[in-house]
């Protein structure tokens, strides 16, 4: 069989800890397929280029068969050139004493520049996932400054929240994580996110589906400690590891892009931050809000018609409100 043409994959924040766990997944074929060669475009800031070169030395030493070429750069115009996929991991970290507004300000500037560069040099079909926090609003800013690329090509990562929620439910129900399907993350990748199991099911080996509500049999937990635990899991990892989630974040980025590339399975959906158009679940237009989606041939469609309880509605409103405030602050800064 003829070899496939390599695709151009950009990873930003290439010297950072998430990238360090993500790059091997890409290079092994766990994201774009085991027969898909890649040209890696690695972007970081100028002072980190020495570290990026060290990462490249290690990538070379791994002798990955799928790696065709590696470009390291501190220039977004070089990094995004003819890109098919862009994983925007790099961002300004929140330092002690920094207000959320300051974080938004610093990052809005970064993602404005990257959006403008994507607009100029990336393929118009580029699929973008924003990981760097505040991920949803950074994705919004990126797309604002890339008007020639459809808004549907910009997403924010909430897959890690989804994986955390699935793992917690699986543990509680005494099943394998892979059996837990259709957990939804609504809203922002922040502590206002709403992990919703009202439509989630546990699928047994013979294909039988049991609602998570029934399998867990503890609504107080599902409506209380479970939601809190998912919302604060990132902080719990930092407390234990003294570093933020990296291995799990990288796996989630890989899974997010894998499902975008290969599609969702029949009867299943996944969650990602997508640009709202005001027509789904009463959520206002113009924010990047995590929703349940299905994907076919690279096209993302929001799952429609799910029944939303009053409990869920309140939680969705709270996270929508936060995203609208973030949008206002960020757009004021960059315009
Ligand atoms: P690190 O601090 O280890 O790495 C970040 C890298 O980004 C650094 O090498 C830095 O130099 C680079 N960088 C900064 N500004 C840049 C720019 N303008 N262009 C290119 N690169 C730039 O952080 P890491 O642990 O890898 O986390 C990266 C981001 O992911 C952070 O913003 C973090 O908050 C966010 N996360 C998002 C998650 C999500 O689910 N959406 C979960 C994990 C993670 O917390």
Automatic annotation (TrEMBL):
Domain (Lactate/malate dehydrogenase N-terminal): residue spans on this chain: 8-152
EC number annotated for this UniProt entry: 1.1.1.37
Domain Lactate/malate dehydrogenase C-terminal: 158-332
UniProt keyword annotations, A-Z: NAD, Oxidoreductase
GO terms, molecular function: L-malate dehydrogenase (NAD+) activity
Enzyme class: oxidoreductase
Active-site residue list: 189 (proton acceptor)
Binding-site residues for substrate, renumbered to this chain: 94, 100, 133, 164
Chain positions recorded as NAD(+) binding sites: 44, 107, 131-133
Any Gene Ontology biological process: malate metabolic process
Pfam families named among the record's database cross-references: Ldh_1_C (PF02866), Ldh_1_N (PF00056)
InterPro entries given in the database record: L-lactate/malate_DH, Lactate/malate_DH_C, Lactate/malate_DH_N, Lactate_DH/Glyco_Ohase_4_C, Malate_DH_NAD-dep_euk, Malate_DH_type2, NAD(P)-bd_dom_sf
Family: Belongs to the LDH/MDH superfamily. MDH type 2 family.
Protein name: malate dehydrogenase
Organism: Salpingoeca rosetta (strain ATCC 50818 / BSB-021)
